[in-house]
Structure formats: C-alpha cells, structure tokens
Amino acid sequence: MILFSLIYFLLGFIHTLLCIIIAFPVYPFIRIFSKKKAKYWVHSMAKVWGRVLMKMAFISFNVEGKENYNPNKTYLLTPNHQSSFDIFACFSIFKKSYAFVSKDTYGKVPLIGFGMSLANYIFVKRGTVGAVKSIDDMEDRLKNGTSIVIYPEGSRSADGEIRKPKRGILKIAERCPDIEILPVVIYGTRDIMKAKSIKINPFRKIRVRFLKPFYLKDIDGDDNAKLNYWYEIMSKNYNEVKNGK
Description:
Pfam families: Acyltransferase. By secondary structure, the protein is an alpha/beta fold. Helices cover 48% and strands 15% of the residues.
C-alpha cells in the first residue's frame, strides 16, 4: 500500500496542476460576460478534480435516500466529517452549484486557496469579527440560491463516530430560517485514509445516506435541543449504515 500511496500522491499532484492550468486561464474570459458563470466554471473544475481523485483510488459509492435530495433546491448541506476524502466524496455526490465552508488556513494554501476564492467558497476565520463575516457570507450564498456545504462537527472525528455539532449552525439557521437543513451520512472515507496518515487504502466503498431535510425552526426546545436533534438522527442513521442496515 505504501507504493500505491506514493504513486497516488504523485498522480494526484499532476492532476491538481492540470486542473489549475485549465481552470485559471479560462476564468477571466468567462468573467467578462458573467461573474456567476465564471465562479461556476471554477467550481465545476473543482468537482472534476475531486471526482477524479476518488476514481484514482478506485472508490465506489452506494447512495441511499436520493429522494430526499433535490439538486434544484437550496440547502444547508450538513455531512459528517471523518477524513480528508470527505471533501472528494462531497464533490462526487452533490450536484450543481454549492459553496464549501472551510477553515481559513486552506485559503492560505498556494493556488488551492486562490481557486477556492474564485469558486466563491467561504473561509471561516477565528475571532468575533471573522466569525460574523463568515456568517454574513453564508447568508449571502443561501439567499442567492447557492447551497452551503458545512461540517457541523467542526473538525474530523478522531474515532469515526458522530460528534455533537457546533453552535455556528444555529446562527446560520436563524439568519435563513426558510432554508432546509439536509443531513447527510457518509461512511467509509476513514477507511481510505485515516487522520494524520498518508497511507491510501484503495478499492473501498463509501456508503452515503441522504436523510429527510428539515427546518431548524420547526424543532421544539432550546438551542441544545435543536443541536441534539441533528446529532441524534445522524448518530442513528450512521450506526445503521455502519452495520449494513
């Protein structure tokens, strides 16, 4: 597997450079005619980038609950987070236009961060001012018809189990009460590459389950009750998917 991992990272690096070489020079020409289409061009290249990286590792998908996901609607998409491959998985399962919410450290990565900015993705910055700006950006995307992909747990789960969501999701839901939250269970990415490891395990299958969307404003109780609702339905379905039910 070490040899495969080395080859994978080499080919992945070349693939990343090719996507950048194709995406960046075309962007300014499309932007002359449409800023929106220019952003979608970079986003489309990012989807190609992520999907090819999955295919390079010979990863397959089993997707359940497709009837709960309408790509033509605007959602707050809330998958769980186990591995760096969750990002590639999201590029593979989510359709049309959406914006990722990412730590601002990724925005500082040469070329990658610039590409994320061109695609209109959102960087979460530490501190009160930075947090407010991030919420403002999310509200702007949602109200303009662009779905948001955010990991409510905040960071990757060390043991793979679902963790309770951070309170940031409450603030977004308060700003956009008429936007549905779509919980998405992703299982299997941790088997491809564990946290703090560079070893790639190919030929794995990822199981995805779209749960029924809901409005956070419809959940009875205080803020903790609303957060627990997401946590409980995600944990229940995660365990079912994990056990093959």
